[in-house]
Write a structure and sequence with these properties.
five-stranded parallel beta sheet, single chain, about 25% strand, Rossmann fold, disordered C terminus, alpha/beta
Length: about 120
Amino acid sequence: MFRIGIAALAVPRSAPHWVGFEQGLRDLGFVEGQNLALDFLLFLDGKTDRLKPAMTELMRRNVDVIVASGEATVTAALEATNTIPIVMVAIDFDPLYSAIFRASRGRAATSPGFSSAISS
């Protein structure tokens, strides 16, 4: 079973981008409970001090990939692993202009993702 760890601050599972993400997985034949496990670690209180323990928990669960939403969550994921692929969800920031690329020593350059950010 393929296991995806999903971490986000202040974004419920019912948010449109998560609903669309799950629908896209189903469209590709990945069905939760059959051939896919989704481990959501959502912190609706927005407390960033919980991110490091959350990433440790995802490592313990042996996820195959981490989907991290938000700049602080992406940074915590990049700091937690050098081996697990990380997909950035950049809804509220532009990763090209954030400190993520500098702080990760190039690791972010190999992390795919999507963004709604528009730079001028």
